[in-house]
Every structure is written in structure tokens, then in C-alpha cells.
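Saturday, quiet lab. Running sequence design on the C-alpha cells for the scaffold JK sent over.
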């Protein structure tokens, strides 16, 4: 498959791999991330995560991995499934520190274990997890195919990967409103509140470059996923992709 354009999009112009730059960016914004995330999405992101959890609930997973877990919001939602364990991995130590404190406050730290980890080199054995999730993280993979392949490796056969990711509305007037918001409003608020305003310039650029819809499904098929479904949410602002090993 042709190289994913999103893999070329980096948050900073200086030297360093995309992975290194993404980790630096999220370390810089970790303190304000949760507040900004919910503010900028008008809390709709919470509904999207609940929808994803509902979709995987039929598998009744007992072991769950949340990749690019950030501060652990998706992991918290997944706890409603009453699994035996939830592991969360992320390349940003700053985001994980915020998430670990959150788990203690919510008394979920015995169930949810957040740790440093890379989607392209997951430190768990083959066929270990009964569900893997990624929320707003696949855009940040340095090598999308490699990340999806290693996620598949740690999944048990017949169990799902659920990816929640931004997408682009296609219909008037939501398409025009969305583009205006992403180009002008989001970066302005991000620059005002965040310690690293470049993060909120990178976000729309990475969404624009991401191979959504049938193009992302082609990546999933290429690395061996099957029974792939696509659920577009809120006029196409976000999409859930559900695929089985």
C-alpha cells in the first residue's frame, strides 16, 4: 500500500521522528489536555467513547488493551464492561502521569494499569487481549501498518479492534462549519489555553491527512483484519471502525 500521508505530518518542524515529536507535544499539553479535549468537543467525545464501548460489549472481553491511552478516558469507559484487567499504553509520560492520578481518584488503579508503551512494539504476548481500543491515536502512529499489525498480534482470534478517530463531514453545511472550526476556532482556543499551541495546529493537519473511511479500511484489510464495520458519528465528525482478528 502507498505510504500513509498522515505519517508525514509532524507537530514540529525541527528534526526528530514523528513518534518523538508527538510524545513531546503531548508531554507539553498534558496538564490541560482533559479540560481542552472536553471543551473543544463540547463533551461529545464522551458520547463517542460510550458508543464504542457498546459496540464491543457483545464480545464480553475480560482482557482489554487501550492503545494511545493518553490520560485514560477510554480506559475508564471500558471499565463498565467489568473486565478482569485493562492495560493502557502511551508514548507520553506526561499524559500517563495525569492518567495514573485519575485512576487513583476514581479508585480504578487496581483494574486499570497505565504504562509507557509503543503501538508498533507492544510488550505483551501473542493472542493475549480480548479487545483492543484506540481513541484518537492512530493518526499519531509513525507507521500505521506496523501499529495495526502489532495490535492484531496481541488480539485473540475472533475478538475486536475498535478505533475511534476524527473524520471529515461530507455534506453541506456541516462540512463548511467543521472546516471553519478546525481552521480558526480550535487553534485559537488551543493557543490561548495550552502551553503548546502548535498541538492544536497539528490536530487539524493530521485529521486532514488521515486515510479515513474506505482508505483506512484498506489498511485494516491489508494487515489481516476481517468483518470490518464503519460507524460514522455526529454528521461524520468522528468514525468508529470495528474489525476482528
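Result came back. Writing it out in full:
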Amino acid at each position: 500500500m502507498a505510504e500513509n500521508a498522515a505519517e508525514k505530518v509532524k507537530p514540529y518542524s525541527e528534526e526528530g521522528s514523528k513518534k518523538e515529536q508527538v510524545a513531546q507535544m503531548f508531554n507539553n499539553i498534558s496538564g490541560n489536555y482533559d479540560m481542552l479535549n472536553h471543551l473543544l468537543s463540547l463533551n461529545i467525545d464522551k458520547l463517542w467513547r460510550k458508543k464504542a464501548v457498546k459496540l464491543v460489549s457483545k464480545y464480553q472481553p475480560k482482557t482489554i488493551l487501550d492503545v494511545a491511552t493518553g490520560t485514560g478516558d477510554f480506559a475508564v469507559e471500558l471499565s463498565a464492561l467489568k473486565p478482569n484487567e485493562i492495560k493502557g499504553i502511551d508514548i507520553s509520560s506526561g499524559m500517563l502521569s495525569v492518567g495514573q492520578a485519575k485512576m487513583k481518584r476514581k479508585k480504578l488503579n487496581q483494574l486499570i494499569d497505565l504504562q509507557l508503551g509503543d503501538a508498533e512494539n507492544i510488550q505483551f504476548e501473542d493472542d493475549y487481549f480480548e479487545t483492543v481500543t484506540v481513541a484518537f491515536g492512530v493518526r499519531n502512529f509513525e507507521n500505521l501498518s506496523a501499529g495495526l499489525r502489532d495490535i492484531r498480534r496481541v488480539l485473540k482470534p475472533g475478538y475486536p479492534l475498535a478505533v475511534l478517530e476524527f473524520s471529515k463531514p461530507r455534506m453541506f453545511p456541516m462540512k463548511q462549519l467543521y472546516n471553519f472550526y478546525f481552521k480558526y476556532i480550535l487553534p485559537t482556543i488551543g493557543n490561548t489555553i495550552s502551553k503548546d499551541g502548535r498541538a492544536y495546529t497539528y490536530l487539524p493537519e493530521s485529521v486532514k491527512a488521515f486515510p479515513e473511511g474506505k482508505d483506512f479500511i484498506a489498511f485494516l484489510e491489508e494487515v489481516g483484519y476481517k468483518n470490518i464495520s464503519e460507524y460514522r458519528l455526529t454528521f461524520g465528525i468522528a468514525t468508529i471502525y470495528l474489525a476482528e482478528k
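Notes for JK: The two ends are 20 Å apart (CA to CA). The chain has a mean pLDDT of 91. Ask whether to fix the surface positions before the next round.
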